[in-house]
Amino acid sequence: MAISIVLPDGKPLSLPDGATPLDAATAISPRLAEAVVVAKVDGKVQDLRVPLTDGAKLELFKPDSGPGRDTINHSAEHLLATAVLKLYPGAKVTMGPQTHDEEFYYDFDVAGRTLGPADLERIEQEIKKLIDAKVAFQRKQVSKPDALRFFDELGQNNEYKQEILSWIPEDDVSIYQCEGFVDLCRGPHLPHAGFIKALKLTGTSGVYWRADASKQSLQRVRGVAFPKKEELDFYNKRQEEAKKRDHRKLGKELELFIVSERYDDHDYREEQGLDLYVGVKADSPLDRKLVDFALSTTEASFPGVSIRQTVNFEKLPAATEDDKSPRPQLDVRLRGAATKEARKAFEQKLTDQKDAEVSLNFEPHYTEELGPGLVMWLPKGGRLRSIIEDQWRKMHFEAGYELVYSPHIAKADLWKVSGHWDFYREGMFSPMSVDGHDYCCKPMNCPFHILMVKSRIRSYREFPMRLAELGTVYRYELPGVMHGLMRVRGFTQDDAHLFCRPDQVAQEIDTVLKFILKMLRTFGFEQFEVNLSTRPAQYVGSLEEWGLAEQNLRDVLVRQGIEFSIDEGGGAFYGPKIDIKLVDALQRRWQCSTLQYDFNNPERFTMEYVNSEGAKERPIMLHRALLGSIERFIGVLIEHYAGALPAWLMPEQVRVVTVSDKHNDHARAVTQALMQKGVRVSFTPSSDKLGGKIRNAQIEKIPYVLVVGDREVEQNGASLRLRDGTDKGFLALAELTQTLVDGCSVPVVT
Ligand SMILES: [Zn+2]
Ligand SMILES: [Zn+2]
Q1: Number of domains in the chain
Q2: Which ligand has an atom closest to residue 70 CA?
């Protein structure tokens, strides 16, 4: 008997019964069979060795394809687990990530041990041996009891695997074996490890089982794996570059914002005398001994001092005797009075501790009192933010949106109606009690906009209604995951909700999608990755509504010629969506824009309008954000441009510097002339040397520097220098003004 399968070009291929994707590849060409690592059968990724059925649609993938890379990362995880089990007898394997992004990782219970760089090196060497040996991944379909028996035999039965097994509803599970390691796993995997051409372990961090701080602490080992050697070199270079561009570092240098990532487990106490903070980065491997040393040194140096720690040690793994990892960063802050000599001696004692990277700070910043993940914008950052928001508002008014404002808190009752109270509570700040009622910080703006639409009876003539808001929301993030502006607990969504009639929705989607791309292009992004996410297993609304909505989204993408991939079942329970990731200068992807249908809220809030026949009808609701979060978007901008933002975004666009004080009057006149044309220009008389002034402007990434000396005064103009060091020479005032007005204007994107 034979089966016939369908190839991507629509051509049929005849194969013997029981043939696998690998057999299909061999039938096409033996060279192809050697090059492919994974298949899609009827749209679902799977191993090359699972038999095909008659009529199946087959796609084959090489290692450097999207599915190929996912499979490489996933297989690298299994190699990592294999190596850890071999090197650390008694270590318990827990689980890796659900989806495989650029990095891979796996979480281990290593009996309270902290894994450091020396461990990473050992593990990496062990993995490389497995790769060189081209170890194979074998799949088996077994019953749950058989899976447990199998784990037992290999000494890999543990409480984590039992818990994971209890989440799986099916009777049969698939397991994968690789050397001595066996894991519950849906797959797919590479045929063998030899397809991984480069691999590097990138770090470890302390995490908790199921991200729950009351549960067992685990060690997460992270890494990257590639189908080509050169890709690792590229990755390393990019990491170097990313470090230089880190928005947290640049944000500090350019004095844009302040945000704390620190997790403080203690409450404020007003006390006399010194107050010591010992802060350790929450994702560093911790060494209790070092912190103990800091504490005892402080006690000895300043007797009677009150000491506070910003880390709760009960929840962290203990250090071990043979731990050779470099000491974590220790941030010691002292408040209150102490003699200069006492401070000096203290500093000496701490920094003499050679293994430690100690930073001492005698100035209180009170960021612990502020709390982590809450951003404060300094004047320059405030200016930058207002420039972005002004542009955003201008474009929204032009696009027919109305601007609204809603409060930061609301009664819990509102969140009960919206469903957040029941389904999103772990993502919300705990409620506060006011007049005997619970109030919550808003995690979203949607309910407010719905109330605005519902403020009176709406006629079909009023739609579409487009309500936009730069709405600051508060969401609970776990301590330890905060990251600069990228991951915070309070952020401003550039939110809008579109309410329309069914006959208007296709047009609305078309318009909003164009608007999203126009907005992102205005900020200089040109490369995007678009995803359409469809109906998940759990959903509200009817199949008909979902079908129509998905069709609308797909049609618009096709009509606008936008390339997209489909995330089957990846939609929210309340509706399908389009997500747009922008690609930055380092080829990193950032999820910013989203456009989502909502079948849930109009129902929950009984939204209605009067249609042309005088009957009541439910409007269609769409959520959309373009920049996503203003905070995060600014973080992305800073890293994309390495701080050198386009001139139109810079708080200070032009700086005038003089050769000597006798040129100050002319400098003032030039400044005045530019200011009148709307250019953000500054001039501060200073006795510094000219070279120093120019250097300062360059460090601050000022796009244009105008140099004024004798010639510039005589001929009424200035010499223009660009941020990259280009010297444009002398320009007369009229030409200069025009050049700078053009250079500082918002780019026109159609
Ligand atoms: Zn797996
Ligand atoms: Zn919304």
Answers
A1: 6
A2: 1
